[in-house]
Predict the structure.
Amino acid sequence: MILVTGGAGFIGANFVLDWLAQSDETVINLDALTYAGNRQNLESLARDERHLFVQGDIGDSILVDRLLVQHRPRAIINFAAESHVDRSIHGPEDFIQTNIVGTFRLLEAVRAYWNELQDEAKQNFRFLHVSTDEVYGSLVKDDPAFTETHRYEPNSPYSASKAASDHLVRAYHHTYGLPVLTTNCSNNYGPYHFPEKLIPLMIINALAGKHLPVYGDGQQIRDWLYVKDHCSAIRRVLEAGKVGEVYNIGGWNEKPNIDIVHTVCALLDELQARADSKSYREQITYVTDRPGHDRRYAIDASKIERELGWKPTETFETGIRKTVQWYLENQSWVANVQSGSYREWVEKNYTGRTA
Ligand code: NAD
Ligand code: TYD
């Protein structure tokens, strides 16, 4: 079996669902169920014996030791993290705790477990750490896209904490021989994306008749990857990645934020037009920029294509249409995630931003 951490969050839940759609190998899913974790994402597995959900913290060494000894996974995929840049600006503490201390404790528990494995089990074991392109910093317009050897230059408390975790993972390989793999991917989008992030926030605000808050001039560029393509890339790295190596994963879809918002508006105009027949674009409002806002991310995903034969299957056009349709068809999921704590977050992040 495999152990997945953070499997009730956006990417982790998509990964668990995809894994069990393609394999009968059991998944132990360790997730602390922070504001970002949602068991509703895994509802379809409620009676599936191949999925064992455990609520707990990756930093709880006693719990993790017990899970490892009891279930003896052949691989661990570490998705668990605090993942939102704006939240890291308002309060970095949780990011240090989970992304750095939590990853460290998880690595310590895994090292002790791996040391006791024998022969083939020891040789075949893998620890796959899921990271981000944000550790590489920000690019200017014509810079080449990030390769795996790009210097680490994190700019936000979020990316700095992920960079620290990547360094720990690397060090556990070089120092202790732990068989690790690291993936650094670009911005994901798709089903179950929590509406604090750009794409789901714009869909949900548009449908609710609210402002669509674009930070600064809206010309910041992100490189968008459909979440199911990300999941297939992780499966491929787990299966065939070379121990100790880093693989960048991206969708070859660089777009300025304002283009993303225009695309979402156009799809909603087509699929669920406003009652007054005006475009959702009318709701766009430029607001105060994010402090330290990275201007451009771009992933060069040629290594994973060349060495492991992986390529994304969705274009941005096909992926964003599926995503908007998913949100329109899953309004009860949308309603359930907009709890009191979500409303508090929206208030905290947006009230002070002048239009
Ligand atoms: P998410 O915030 O949606 O989910 C994170 C999950 O981790 C939640 O279910 C949460 O409950 C759980 N979690 C948080 N702290 C925990 C802890 N201490 N112990 C156990 N579980 C804990 O995040 P996501 O978007 O699914 O991202 C998953 C991973 O991918 C993260 O490591 C993130 O840094 C990385 N990543 C995400 C993106 C993106 O676009 N979303 C891009 C690049 C990299
Ligand atoms: P986000 O989804 O938070 O991901 P990240 O910061 O990890 O790239 O934001 C994507 C881009 O969208 C980023 O440049 C910030 C911008 N953005 C807005 O313009 N308005 C918003 O309300 C949000 C949440 C993000």
Summary: The CA atoms of residues 1 and 26 lie 5 Å apart. Residues 5-6, 8-12, 30-34, 36-37, 57-59, 79-81, 83, 98, 102, 130, 132, 162, 185, 187-188, 194 surround nicotinamide-adenine-dinucleotide (ligand 1) (CB under 6 Å). The chain has a mean pLDDT of 98.
